[in-house]
Write a structure and sequence with these properties.
single chain, 5 helices, elongated
């Protein structure tokens, strides 16, 4: 599926949800007076969706890949912070919420990895490189491939059946 805007991306939507839920959690009592901890996890969570958006808007596959890995790193940072919270006194009432947030961050990391893997094996350089000439060349290559496939199918249909040839003296 082709996406025209980063706001359409399921992984971006999940990253926004992660940031919203992190902000909801950090508004709770255990975070009072822990400004640096609160700030760090909030900034890491926001960084995930922001880096997906920035990479998407850059216009080259290589830049998109770079930002996807940065976003993935931020998702890892969120998970790390959540692991820290599990071990800190005063956060035991948030155990279930922390666990759910870790799962959400892991899912985002998996999606980003799969997307990055697919981009790395792609020949597409990115929107910035799409000119009329490259569009024409890609169309011509696609049409050539389709034509050659049609020729192959015609040859297969017209090929004598070698399994039946020579039986009973008939060909």
């Amino acid at each position: 599926m082709k996406y025209d805007r980063f706001e359409e991306l399921p992984v971006w939507k999940a990253a926004i949800e992660l940031a919203v839920q992190i902000h909801g959690m950090t508004a709770k009592v255990p975070f009072r007076g822990r400004f640096s901890l609160r700030d760090q996890i909030e900034r890491a969570a926001v960084s995930v969706s922001n880096n997906i958006a920035e990479g998407f808007e850059r216009g080259t596959t290589q830049e998109l890949l770079t930002f996807l890995y940065i976003a993935r790193g931020s998702a890892g940072e969120v998970r790390s912070m959540l692991c820290l919270l599990e071990g800190l006194p005063g956060f035991s009432d948030l155990k279930s919420e922390i666990s759910n947030l870790k799962s959400l961050a892991e899912g985002i990391s998996r999606q980003l990895r799969a997307w990055a893997d697919s981009l790395q094996s792609s020949q597409i350089k990115g929107q910035r490189y799409l000119t009329e000439k490259t569009r024409h060349l890609e169309k011509a290559a696609r049409e050539r491939k389709e034509f050659l496939e049609q020729l192959r199918q015609i040859r297969e249909q017209n090929k004598p059946d070698s399994a039946n040839s020579g039986k009973n003296g008939k060909e």
